[in-house]
Structure formats: structure tokens, C-alpha cells
Amino acid sequence: MDHAHQNTSHHCCSDNPAHPDEGNSESKVYTCPMHPEVRQDRPGMCPECGMNLVPAKRKGAAMNHEAHDKHAGHSTAMFLRKFWVSLILTVPVVLYADVVEKIFRWSPPDFSGSEYLPLILGSIVFFYGGWVFLAGAGREILGRLPGMMTLIGIAITAAYLWSVYAVFAGAEALFWELTTLITIMLLGHWLEMRAVSGAQGALKELSKLLPDTAEVIRNGQTATVQLSELREHDVVLVRPGAKIPADGQIVDGESDVNESMVTGESKPVAKKEGDAVIAGTINGDGALKISVSNIGEKTFLAGVMRLVAEAQASKSRLQILSDRAALYLTVVAVSGGLVTLIAWLASGAEVGFAVARLVAVLVIACPHALGLAVPLVASISTTKAAHNGFLVKQRLALEAARSVDTVLFDKTGTLTRGEFGVVSYSSDEALTLAASVDAHSEHPIARGIVAEAKKQGLALREAKNFKRIPGVGAEAEVGGKKVFVGHRGKSDIQVELDGATVGAIAVADTIRVEAYEALRELKGMGVRLAMITGDSEEVAREVSETLGIDEYFARVLPHQKSEKVKELQSRGLRVAMVGDGINDAPALTQADLGIAIGAGTNVAIESAGIILVRDDPRDIAKIVRLSKMTYAKMIQNLFWATGYNIVALPLAAGALYAWGIILEPALAAVFMSASTVIVAVNALLLKRAPLV
User: Is the pLDDT of residue 23 over 50?
Assistant: First the structure.
């Protein structure tokens, strides 16, 4: 598990530098991927969400990004401020409107120039409160992606221009509809921004895990320094109950460390000298001295935040579908609004009435809820995954998990601990020769053989011209003779000297305790289980029978793993591949869903769509559950976001006017805002849903 943290951290930072354009003279402005309005001339942390700032894109790219983002440059505080100002100004506009006198048979006192009060206050509301929608519409039109802001911009502009004309022409103005529409829209957007900020707040919470200062030991003296002053290889003192300031390795002390906020592990993890620790986790009752290995951008925590941000920036199939639907809805709304306007004018209706119908149609058809339905759910699911021990690199990967019907496990290091021990050996000579060759290998079996030779006090001999034979074993020259150590069609490790058998070594790998529970959960969900290994038929059969695996592939060489994935897929199965080694990378890429165990190599992690941080196979069931829950929320939101349009659009156009049923622009704004809030609240319910 600790090894997982180190490797994941390395991948997150070394393979994906935070500032790839650093040193480029054209890129001197840094911005936040989630909050483009945050811009400064040096690297740092975003004050909104705590993410690391990255170099801003070129002007053309930035313009294109902002055209996609209807809330570029906006904040919750701004919407709330504009809402209150607009609300205060709207009250007198409504009071002096004819509708109040008609309904309540009461009107406020007149004064000199009172007939121009709605014009003055309505103009302030239009330009102050409505400017955010007009500017957004401009960005959408320039980006050739008309959407929600375009519809609102057209609606309030049409209502305002007609009303200004009506004041001087003696016709019925729409100032009370205009001001209430803008006020309600501001309220709706404020509620949406709060919901979105809440979803992104997980990143901010992650950034808060780090302490502000650290106690560093230099020249035998302990000094408190700012976190930014820490350097790699510094030794820091972490007192009981304090937060660990940086990734590192314990050089002195023992304690239990709470890693729940970072890895999702609910129980404190026992740590001793030599164990790795993660920045932001909380020390238990013991004092620890830690040698700093990673700081700043290189920490595991920074890598988690970066992966979460990358996943939130990617799109799922449903989001692509909803974006396309929102574009089509915009075209339908503008076309329908024009048809409605022309039809009412042709039927002899007053211009003010016809314009009101146009405004109502444009407002009710705003794809606001549709644009929020999928992205908000996806954002919440991504941060929820990070808090539960797995990182989603691609949203398409999480989306694919719900339909997986077969999980293919690489045996060693995934279902088993990958910590081989020697059970028996035929002679000291065989063990000595094997250990002398395997001393040059990093394979788990080789390490087990070397450890046993040292345990028995055997002196290793010099080995030259070492060569690894993938999936079989290794060979080298010892004392001028060629020694082979590996499998020759048998379960035991064979040792040969110049082609003649010297002896055999029996090794065994222990099955993870968590593997039993993980496979039982997956089977309970109706998922088929398969295993792939380079081990012998006997070993593969024994492990499969012990764990209740449906199918296994034995003696599979590294380059053959992806072929086995293709074989399963050729049967019509949707395959998730779980692996941790460099040899698993092609299979992870070939699978419908690639899941990398966090302890694996950077290559394996790079090839996977989802990374298990905790090195715990039980989290695979959580991935499937979260995928199904996320998909269900998205479908629910899409149904609500589009369903209400089917009912409300005809009402807004005046289809039931003959029966006295009409949908005024202000009421249309209420319905549109209500649908947006419902979609947001439904998405936020995903936060509280358990994955166990």
C-alpha cells in the first residue's frame, strides 16, 4: 500500500508536469483549470478551489474555452449581489405595473415623472443585472456555440427594446416581466453556482489537508518553517495528532496514521521505520521523524488533485449527448420563438402580447438544466471516487464500468501479495546457483529465492551476462558455466547448469485476504470472474478453485495478455482488466475498462482509465456501484431537464390561450430556474450515497 502511494505520486507528477509550458516566453500568465477567471503572473494555488495554477492558453485557445463556459469570469458572490440589487429595483417596477392594479385594484401614489419610473429602474436592472447574460451571449455567438446565454440574451433584449419603444408610443410595456425575469434568472444562476462550487469544493478540501508550516530538523536544531521552504531530503518532526507536511519515509518512530481523507481507508494504518507516508494524512499517538521525498507539485496529494481535475475536464458519452441536445434545443427555441411571434402578430394580437410570448418561449426553452444535468453529476462522482480510494482518469472509463460483465485479474500482485517464499529446495547447490542469478532480477520470485539463500547463510557467487527471459525465468554465467533458473513446464522452479538439471525449488505466493471478499462481492453483482497468470496450470487451477474464479488462463507470456482480453471480447463479453505491472499495459489498453493497482508501474497506470490508490481489490466493486449510481443520476437529470420543456413550451407559446391558460415570461423563468435547482439537488444527493 505504501508502495502504491509512491508510484502513484511519481506518475501523477513526473509524467504529467504541472507546468509543461514553463520557460515559454509567450506563456507568462497562470490560471486555474476550474476557475478561468483566476489569473496571475506566477505559479501558485487557486484561491477558489486550491488547485495548482497552470500556464494560460494562447488568446485563441482561451477565447474558445470561454465560449464553452457560460460561467467564465463569474462567481457566486457576484450573482448574489446582482440578485439583491435587481430584486430591490424590481419591487417598485412591479408595484407601478398595470398588473397590480388589475389584480388588487390598488395602485401606488403617482408623482411627477412616475410614468418613467419603470423605464429608469428597468434600464438599470437590464444593464446591471442582465449584463452578465448579454456578455455570455456574446461569447457564445463569437464561439459559434449558441446556447443558454444566447437565449436569455435575446429574450431580455427583445423585451427591453420593445418596452422602451412602448413607453414613448403609448403601448403596453413589459418592464415588470423584464425585471422579474432577470431577477429570477440571477437567483437561479446563484443556486447553480453554489451547487457547482460545492461539487468542486472537494478539491479545495483536499488542498486544506496540508498544514501551513512544518517542523524541520537542520543541523540538530528544530525550526518551524513555511511549507514552501521545505526541501527534498529534509527531515521533519511530526508530533502526535499533527498533519504530515510532505510525502516521505519514516526514519525514526512508530505510529498509526489516519489516511482516510486521501485513500478512503477508514482504519488508521500502522507505520514504522522505513514505511512511506503521504502529505496531508494525520499522525496518531507516536512522534515521527520523516525524510521528505516529494514536495509541492510532486506530492501524492497534488497528483490526486490533478487527476481529479483532468477527469472533470473530460467528457462522458452522456455529456456529449446532452451538449448536442442543448445546441439543438437552442436552435428549436429561436426558431419556435420567431414562429410564435409571427403567428401572434399575424392573428392580430398586440405587439406587446406577441413579444411576451416570444420571451416566454425563449426563456422556457433555455437548456440551462440540460447543460447542468450531466456535468454536475460527473464532477461529484469524480471527487467521490477520489475520497473512496480510486482515481478516475477518464470519465468514459467510469461510464464503462456499469456495463462490465467480466473482470479479468492478473494474479500476481493483484489477487496474491506477490511476496513469494521458498517452501522447499532440493539442495544448497541449487539454491545457491539460483540466488546468484536472481540477485540481478527484480521479479518477486527472484527476491524470495535470494532472501531464502541469505536466510540459510549461503554465499552468493558472481554472475555475469544476466538475461531475463520474459514469462519463463532468467539465465546468467556463474563460474564460466551457463545457469538457467525458471519454469520448464513444471510448477517448481528448475535450476540447470549447462543444460543439466541441478535441482528444483518450490515457491508459493500467498493469496490476499481482501481478494476473497472482493471476488465474493463482484459475483454477488452478477459479474463473471477470470484470471490470467504466467504460472503453471497447477498453480492457476489451485488459486482459481480457492477463490471461486470462473475461468483462468495459465502460462500466458507477457505479450499474450492482450490476446486473452481479445479472446474474451470476441465472445461478446465486456471486459475490465485489473493489473499492476508493466507487462499488463497492453491488456489494460485493450480491455473495455483498464484498472491499475496503485502499486503498479507508471506504464500500467498510464494505460488505465481508473487507478486503485489503496492497492485493495475490494475497491473494484465500488467502481461498479459508483458507475451505476452515476449513470442513474445522469438519466434522471436528463429526463427532468428535457421533460418539462415538452409540457411548458406549448404553454409559453400560448397554445392554450383560448382556454385562459397562459405562461407569462416571469413564470417561465420560475419554471426554468426550478428545473435547474431540482437537477442540481438531485445531483448533490449522489454525495451522500454510500458505496458499500
Answer: no
Identify whether residues 579 and 485 lie together within a single domain. no
φ, ψ (nearest 5 deg) of residue 390: -145, 145
For residues 528 and 489, membership in a common domain is answered with: no
CATH number for position 396: 3.40.50.1000
The catalytic position among 275, 323, 410, 616 is 410
CATH number at residue 279: 2.70.150.10
Judge residue 19's burial from the number of C-beta atoms within 10 Å of its C-beta, 0-12 exposed, 13-18 middle, 19 or more buried. middle
Percent of the chain as helix, strand, coil, to the nearest 5: 55, 15, 30
Could you read off the pLDDT of 410-426 as tens digits, one per residue?
887 788 877 788 888 99
CA distance 344 to 350: 8
Whether the per-residue pLDDT at 4 is higher than 50: the answer is no
One-letter amino acid of 428: D
Total number of domains in the chain: 3
Q: Check residue 494 and give its pLDDT.
A: 92
Last residue of a domain, one of 558, 588, 615: 615
**In the chain, how long is the greatest CA-to-CA distance?**
115
Nearest to 252 by CA among 286, 216, 220: 286
Q: Please tell me the predicted confidence (pLDDT) of residue 565.
A: 93
Cβ-contact 282, 244 below 8 angstroms: yes
Residue 434 within any structural domain of the chain: yes
Is residue 480 included in any domain, yes or no?
Answer: yes
Q: Which grid coordinates are listed for 132?
A: 452578465
Q: Is the pTM of this model over 0.85?
A: no
H or E element at residue 422: strand 421-425
* Residue 441 structural domain: 421-508
Please, what is the Cα angle at 394 between 407 and 641, to 5 degrees?
105
524 and 564 in a single domain? The answer is yes
**Residues 546 and 428 grouped into a single domain:** no
pLDDT single digits (tens) 91-139? 998 888 776 676 677 778 887 878 889 999 999 999 999 998 888 888 8
Q: Is the pLDDT of residue 598 over 60?
A: yes
**How many residues are there in the chain?**
692
CA 54 to chain centre: 18
Q: What is the rounded CA–CA span in Å between residue 577 and residue 408?
A: 5
Question: What type of residue is 372?
Answer: L
Q: Do residues 475 and 485 lie in contact, with contact meaning Cβ atoms separated by under 8 Å?
A: yes
Q: Which three cell numbers stand for residue 321?
A: 449527448
295 DSSP 8-state letter: -
Burial status of residue 222 (CB atoms within 10 A of its CB: 0-12, 13-18, 19 or more): exposed
Confidence of residue 564 (pLDDT cuts 50, 70, 90): very high
The domain that contains 489 carries what CATH number?
3.40.1110.10
Other C-beta atoms lying within 10 Å of the C-beta of residue 405: 15
- Both 405 and 454 in one domain: the answer is no
Q: How many CB atoms lie within 10 A of CB 524?
A: 9
Residue 410 appears among annotated catalytic residues? yes
